[in-house]
Amino acid sequence: MRWLVLMLVLAILPLDALAEDRPRSGLMWNRSRLPATFPVVVKTPPGEDYVMFVTRPADGAAVMAGYIRGGDFFRLLVPPGEWRLRFAFGTAWQGETNLFGAATDWIDVQHALDFRVLGLNRRRAYVITLTEQDGTVKVVDARPGAECQLVLWNSEIREAPVDLPGMSPEEREVLVGPQQEPLTRPRLRYVDSEFDVYTRLCE
Question: What percent of the chain has pLDDT over 90?
Fold first, then answer.
């Protein structure tokens, strides 16, 4: 009886042993040697995980990959240029080499996406929507848009103490009084301007 149980365990074990912990949604690797500055947002249904490959249109070579947990918000910055997007998907992650094993499925965005600067504060962005219908995943939308950068300025009134060296004891007493130590010049008020840069989809 024990041998029968052991044989059943060994028969089931390879399926589970191949599975690895799922990566978090985000960048897996970037081999493009280019700065990644252009955003792509991918919307996916829950239930399966996805690996998005950014590939060269000429030869299909992948230059970047990102992991997407199905249903999670996913935004990835890609290099400038024209790229094709391919998605591998499945349920049992088995590492970067095997992806989702023999059950790995694939889906492509049918046309190249052009990531480029549109103006002084606008960059080309894309929103990709994948959906599952009757057990089949397909691309329902690959909508181009733009991401705008907004600069917001903040001003605060602050006080800055300034040391006043070389003052005689008499001058100190006249200026700040005999009991006040350490001796400093009266604080000056100045305006400190700072700015923050915000980005958002504007088309």
Answer: 48
